[in-house]
Specification:
By secondary structure, the chain is an alpha+beta fold. The chain contains 3 helices and 6 strands. The strands form 2 sheets. Strands 1-4-5 form a 3-stranded antiparallel beta sheet. Strand 4 and strand 5 form a beta hairpin. 6% of the residues are buried.
Length: 205
């Protein structure tokens, strides 16, 4: 009986040793697989880092190029805005300078009218006094012209323009069709684009 128990105990010990050996082999195999997998993962990560290192300079270049393009666009916009500002400022300055003399010119226009009436009343156009007064009138006209004053065209036969002319008389005409100026009764003037006095005219109907 004791021999039988010894044999069973011996068999159990042998089976336990075999299972232990199998377990160690399995663990060894699993360890090898884990080592292989870890190595593959490390290699993959190294390759990825190398690819990122290779791509990083190109990415930085593209990023810098984009920033440079944005700054160039911003600079162009600033230059355009500044050019528009300078243009507007220059135009406003010219306009202010032009119309600053409007009041003085309005006061001088009646004086110029009196010169012309006086000259028209003189019969002898070759008289030295007439020529002297006409020279003064021309000097006044030239000075006003340099300041921006311009006489409105109201010659006979010119189309009537309500923006430039003021019709105070109408008359039928066989020589001109309707809406033509027949006579200028009082000259009109513009200061730049602004009409400071419309021409008084007689118009055909």
């Amino acid at each position: 009986m004791e021999n039988k128990n010894k044999e069973e105990l011996k068999n159990k010990e042998e089976m336990s040793q075999e299972e232990s050996i199998e377990t160690e082999e399995t663990v060894t195999v699993d360890s090898d697989q884990i080592s292989v997998e870890e190595g593959a993962q490390d290699q993959k990560e190294e390759n990825l880092e190398e690819e990122q290192d290779d791509m990083e300079p190109a990415f930085k270049i593209r990023s810098l190029e984009n920033k440079l393009a944005e700054q160039e666009d911003a600079l162009k916009r600033v230059n355009a805005e500044y050019a528009n500002f300078r243009r507007r400022t220059s135009e406003e300055k010219d306009t202010i300078a032009l119309y600053a003399n409007e009041k003085v010119m309005n006061e001088l226009l009646p004086v110029l009218d009196n010169f012309e009436r006086a000259l028209n009343a003189v019969e002898d156009k070759e008289d030295s006094l007439y020529k002297g007064v006409d020279m003064i009138r021309l000097q006044i006209v030239e000075a006003l012209k340099k300041s921006g004053l311009e006489k409105i065209d109201a010659q006979v036969g010119v189309d009537f323009d309500p923006n430039l002319h003021m019709a105070v008389m109408q008359e039928e005409s066989t020589d001109h069709e309707a809406g033509k100026i027949l006579m200028e009764l009082q000259p009109g003037y513009k200061l730049g684009k602004k009409v400071i006095r419309a021409s008084m005219v007689k118009v055909s109907c």
